[in-house]
Structure prediction request, 654 residues.
Amino acid sequence: MIDMNNIKKVYDTGKIQVEALRGVNLQIEEGDFMTVVGPSGSGKSTLMNIIGCLDKPSEGEYKLNQKSVKNFNDNQLSEIRNQDIGFVFQNFNLLPYASAYENVEMPLLFAGMSGKKRRERVEYILDRVGLSERMGHKPNELSGGQKQRVAIARALVNNPKIILADEPTGNLDTKTGENIMQLFIELWKEGNTIVMITHDPRATKYSEKAVKLIDGKIKNQTMD
Amino acid sequence: MNKVFNHISKNLLLIKLFIRELNKERRKILMTIAGIAWGTLTIILLLSFGDGLANQMMKSRKGLGVNIVILYPGQTGREYQGLPQGRGISFREEDCDLLKNRIPYIDRIAGEYDSWGNSFKYKDKMVSEKVRGVSSIGYEDMRTHFPQEGGRFINKMDLQERRRVIFLGTNLKERLMGDVDAVGETILINGFPFKVIGVMQDKMQMGMYGGPDTETAVIPASTFKTIYGNEYLSRIIYQVNEIDRSEYVNSLVRQTLGSKYRFHPEDKSALHFWDTIKNTKVTRKVFTGITIFMGLIGALTLVIASVGVANIMFITVKKRTREIGIKRAIGGKRGLIKFQFIMEALLIDLTGGLIGGSVAYLIVFLIRNLIGKGDGFGEGMAMYMLSQPNFSWTVAITTASILGLVGLLSGFFPARRAAAVDPIEALHYE
Ligand SMILES: Nc1ncnc2c1ncn2[C@@H]1O[C@H](COP(=O)(O)OP(=O)(O)OP(=O)(O)O)[C@@H](O)[C@H]1O
Ligand SMILES: [Mg+2]
Prediction:
């Protein structure tokens, strides 16, 4: 489903050029649960943003469903992010003035889904992550774990082909983090494809593929 | 259809969220809305008063007459065909027919005789006033002598049969007869009985000669001659069918009368023209100028207010960089982000516009209905001129277009910046 070939990413900050990725090769198949680990600054988030079509590689070929991402325009990339990819971030990135319900509804609005279907879908997915009781609450009225559940629901709501999670438990205490991790594992078992940046050994244990990034390069790729 | 509905419902939700967020910046937004409201109020009031003033001005110009030239006899200014300089010219009623027949651009023409200091008597009441004899029925339209309901102006039969009928100016009628229904009553002028056939509708009159029409009594010229024995007219009044032609018509009049009374066609002092049409054209130009000037001032106020809107939009774009990034990350397209910010600017603009427009409407309404119209003279004149501001469709459409344009412009640039936000940087933005 995802095929990356010699991906490089260079950030040009004027004076210095930062090579965040230096030739990454990566394949992800449907149903995979892949973890990405590595020290800070090794390029994990950069890789994730490229996979999620938020960013474009400086060099190399990225094919999503056999199609080269290079050729898509901004609107098509927006549609891909909306339809095929679900993002979960470390700092949740929820819209602060919108309720849990409205946050989850947002991707469906962008997709142009009709009102009634939208309602069913949002309610179903919030129920799935265990937040039926908190639909009307704003993010600042929710705990960290609940916020992350809203973010996961938002990532799932359009039935994406792949879920990308950048340290989803990084801002949570151990206990809550475990619960969230458990939720991801359940979702994977239901057939979702998941790529997660994490240091949680539990996830590494369940994942079939573990990628270790060091200095913008993949050091080892283990398979169970 | 469904798609359109979806589009609307989608944006309604986004706008709902936006309003919720705006609430946080309530003070700043309220100031901006107040600015737009003030700008709208200013522009509408300026245009309405300008329009009303022009209307009143035109109306009171019409009080004297519609496209008329008032022609006075003078004295020859030079020798001509052996006749001396300083010879007096006098008009007769036949001159009116002569001019009308010779000059096709004259629509209506009438001669006037005046007699001053006549004693009017009705029952016990005595008043001293002027009597005017007029030689044609076209006078009614030309000099705006319209009768109040139930009455009429002098007609052909009155003229032919030298009837002793009289048409009274409003004020004269009131002074002489009070509230009585005058039509059909008989009054005495210097002892001669006259039947009142009509009372003039009240009117505003800017220019005048020999006093306002509201103080004048009009009788048929034929009747006038039998009583007073005048041979010569005091003046001739004619109406020109196309206002741009008045000067040409005046020159034809000079030629025609010149060949009859034998004065040089270029002799400026033989005839005196009071061309009210020229004045009308100048007034019209002045008011167009005033309206444009006032519109510009109002528009400027609005532009300043709109800079306020743009400013606040730029601030919100910056403040909401992170949210823009989130929306982009979950699939919001650039166009949608742009559209949203433009809508938001328009919303602020519209709210301000509606408030300003309503207040302006209220003020115009109150002034039109509650403030006295003034009696038309002296201080009352100013009141009369300003008492009828006109919130016309033109004013409304002009204001709405300026508002719309201003809203679009003040939304466009911030929106463009919002759409250009880089999602990754935005997600890191604190
Ligand atoms: N927008 C940017 N401009 C310039 N340099 C950047 C930018 N984003 C990332 N970098 C640099 O690229 C390198 C990789 O960054 P990245 O965020 O991918 O690391 P990471 O592995 O996610 O680190 P962490 O574990 O701390 O999140 C770093 O050296 C970082 O400073
Ligand atoms: Mg990172």
